[in-house]
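--- STAGE predict ---
source: upstream dedup step, 1 unique chain passed
mode: sequence only
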Amino acid sequence: MPDKPRRIDLTPEDIKALLERVKPVVSEQDYEAIKAMADTIESLSQVRDQKAASIKRLLNLLFGQKSEKKNKVFDEPKDNDSDDPKGGKKPPKKRKGHGRNGASAYTGAEKVFVSHENLKHGDPCPECPRGKVYRCKIPGTVVRIIGSSPLKATIYEMEKLRCNLCGEIFTATPPEDIGTQKYDQTAAVTIALLKYANGVPFYRLEQFQSMLGVPVPASTQWEITEALGLQAKWPYLEVLKQAAQGELFHIDDTTGKILSLIKEGETENGRKGIFTTGILSKMGDRKAVLYFTGRNHAGENLKDLLQNRLHGLSPPRLMCDALSRNTSEDLEVILANCLTHGRRNFVDVASSFPEECRFVIETLAKVYQNDQVAKDQSMTPEERLAFHRAQSKPLMDELYLWFNKHLNEKLVEPNSGLGKAITYMLNHWEPLTRFLEVPGVPLDNNVCERALKKAIIHRKNSLFYKTENGALIGDIFMSLIQTCSMVRENPFDYLLALHRNPSQVAENPENWLPWNFRQVILSPN
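--- STAGE serialize ---
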C-alpha cells in the first residue's frame, strides 16, 4: 500500500518562487505543464477553503455557534488559566448569579408567618429570668417550592338548601372578590408572557394544562390574548411615536412566516419573502424595541417609522449590517455598519488562514477593549469619541494599510475566503469606522441581534402566524415586553396594569408606557 502523501502548505508567494526556480532548468513545455498544475492546486485549495467556510456557517445555522471569542476560534486557553505566581494555576473566578437564591429573590412567593410555638413578644426569657424576648426585625426563613400549572383553577361550590315543603331552593352567594369573569386578568397576562416572551405555543400550553387537570383550550387562549393585545395597542402606538424621535437606531431582519401571505403568493413587484424586523431606538437614557412582521424589509420599516419624526430634528444615526435592504435612498441617516459582521468573515476562515486572521481578530479585540474602558469610565459620547480617536484610530489605520497591502501586492488571492473578508472590510470601511467620526456611534449591532432572538424563539416554537392580525398582536406584545426589559421594568406588572385600566389606557396612552406607568399607579389621584 503506498504511503499517504505528505501535505505541504504553500502560500501564493511560495508557488511563485518555486516556478521561478523551475523555469530556467526545464523546457518551456514542461514549465507550462508545471505552472498549470500549480494553478490547479491553488484553485482547488481556494475551493476547499470556501467550502469549509460554507460548511462551518451551515453547521452554525443548524446547531448554533457557541462563541466567536478569540480563544475559542484559535483553541487557546482562557486568560484565567495562566499560572499563579505562587505556584499552580489560578482558580477560576466564580460567575455571578449561579448557585442558590436567597429568600429575598422570591418576590412572587406567598409569605406565611409562623409564630413561635412557646413564646410571644414580651415574654420572659426562658434562659435568663430577668430578660424579655422581643421580635427580631429579620425573621428566619425557609423556602419550599411546589409544582403547579401556570394557570390555576378554583372551583367554588355554593351550598344549596331546599325546602321539603314548598321546594324553594336557596343558593349561597359567591364571594365578592372572585370577580365575574371565568379567566382572571392575571391569566391573560400569563398566557401572553408564555407565548410571546418565552415561545410557548398555545397548543403546547393546552397539553400541559390538561396533564395537570386544568384544561385551557388553545382557541380560548388566543381569544384572551387577542383582547389584551387590542388594549395594549394604544400604548404600543405611542411607543412608536416616541421611538421615532430617537437619536440612534439599531435595525436587523430575520425570516418570518404568515400563512395568509404565503397563500397569496408573491406581490406585484415579485416579492415572496416575509420578514420580522427588529428596531431598537435609543432616546436619551431610554431604549424602545419594536417588531414588524410582514413583507417589508428593515429599511422600509424604518422609513415608515420615521414618518412620525418631528421636523427640524437632526438626522439620526443608524447601525445595521451592510445589506442593501437595511437602507434606502429616501432615508436621511448617518449610516454606521456592524464591526462584528466584518470580524465574523475572518472567524469563518480562521482555520485556513490562521496567522492572518489572528492579526485581524487581535487588533479588533484591542478596539473593543478600548470601548469597554469608555463604558467602565462612563464617558460622555464626546469623551468616548476623543478616546477612540486617540487609542483606536491608530489600530484601524494599521488594519487599513494591512488590508490594502495584501490585495495590492497580491499577498492573498482576492477570490479566496481571506480575500473576500478583506474586500468586505475595504468596501464598507467608512461606515465600519463611523465610531471614529460621530459621537455615540456603537461598534456593532449586537444589541439588536439579541433583541431579535425573541422573534426567533417564537418562530422556532410556533412556526408561523396564521393571519396578519395574529402577526400584529405578536409584534405588539413582543415590542412592549422587550421594551420593559430594556428599561428594567417587570413586563407582568406592566401588562397587568394595562389590563386593569383599559379606559384610562385608551384615553391617555402616553401615561401608560413601560417607563412611566408606575407613576400613574402610585399617584394618589
